[in-house]
Amino acid sequence: RRSEALQDVPIAVSAFSQEALKSSRLDSAANLALQVPNLNYSQQLYGSSNFQIRGIGYSLVTTAGDQGVGVAENYAPIDRARITDAEFYDVERVEVLRGPQGTLFGRNASAGLINIISKAPENTFSAKGEITYGNYDYWRLSGRVTGPVSDSIALALDGVWSKRDGFYKLVDGAGETVGDTNDRDRYFLRGQLLFEPTDALSIRLIADYTYRNEKCCGAIYVDNSVNPYIG
Predict the structure, then answer these.
(1) How far is it, in rounded angstroms, from Cα 39 to Cα 36?
(2) Alpha-carbon gap, residue 18 to 128, rounded angstroms
(3) Pairwise CA distance, residues 111 & 206, whole Å
(4) C-alpha–C-alpha distance, residues 66 and 68, integer Å
(5) Residues 206 and 198: beta-carbon distance below 8 Å
(6) For every one of its 231 residues, what pLDDT tens digit does the chain have, with 9 covering 90 and above?
(7) DSSP string spanning 74-105?
(8) Which residues contact 143 (CB under 8 A, 6 or more apart)?
(9) Checking phi first, is residue 149 left (phi over 0); if not, alpha (psi -120 to 50) or beta?
């Protein structure tokens, strides 16, 4: 595997740097469909993601089917990826390759591939954070800390937390509001260790964790006397 200029690669590729993702408001994989030609997205049951490129994708409600559009993080394939649970924060770039992919990324993909490259730890100390507030009592906190441990080891820790009230109301048969849905309550953590003992050898360990506890889309309120509906 080696780096090449997009103009020299005989394949349709859309690539976004961290600056391009931020300026285009592409904070998650689901929003890539707004900027990438021939890419469509929908969320399946059980939290799975259905990406389609040029009409080819994964529409089965099962965990046993094979994805038409592959997903890789730092060139490693992710099977049954719940990529929509994670947010694009401090990634180096995101690549969308349209067209059949061979085993370059660890497995075949008939329609294309979404490749996410995390930003590596740095050998100089730096820290940053952001706070966002919006409608429906929406809060989003994000931050990154990175720096050296020794001359050959560097660490980085990234985190994102977001919470929002639901914007769909659950109403019972009597017209009374009994709750809401489509809220948001999730956080994401990523830790990285970069070990460079020589100029020719680089070892990078990455661990990430995503938490999600939301009432989304298909959620209903169960009552013994009336059948509520979403309004």
Answers:
(1) 6
(2) 15
(3) 27
(4) 6
(5) no
(6) 677 777 787 778 888 888 888 888 787 777 888 888 888 887 765 556 778 888 887 766 666 667 778 888 888 887 665 666 667 778 888 888 888 887 777 778 888 888 888 899 999 999 999 999 999 899 999 999 999 999 999 999 999 999 998 887 777 777 777 777 888 888 889 999 999 999 889 999 999 888 888 776 544 444 444 444 444
(7) TTEE-TT--GGGS---SEEEEEEEES-B-GGG
(8) 127, 128, 129, 130, 158, 159
(9) alpha
- In this structure, what token pair is assigned to residue 40? 């469509």
Query: In this structure, what token pair is assigned to residue 211?
Result: 């938490």
Segment holding 21, helix H or strand E: helix 18-23
If you ran DSSP here, which 8-state letter would residue 18 be given? H
Q: pTM of the full predicted structure?
A: 0.73
What are residue 29's phi and psi, to 5 degrees?
A: -65, -30
Measuring CA to CA, which residue among 79, 103, 138, 93 is closest to residue 3?
A: 93
Q: What single letter denotes the amino acid at residue 164? A: R
* Distances in whole angstroms, Cα of residue 52 to Cα of each of 15, 64, 75, 95, 107: 17, 18, 20, 15, 17
Tell me how crowded residue 109 is: count the other CB atoms within 10 A of its CB. 26
Q: What are phi and psi of 149, to 5 degrees?
A: -100, -35
Q: Could you tell me the two tokens for 175?
A: 């017209």
In this structure, what DSSP letter does residue 45 have?
A: G
Give the amino acid at 195. Answer: F
Cα–Cα distance, 100 to 3 (Å, whole number): 19
Q: Rounded to the nearest 5 degrees, what angle is found at the Cα of 62, between the Cα atoms of 56 and 67?
A: 30
- Residue with token string 């947010």: 87
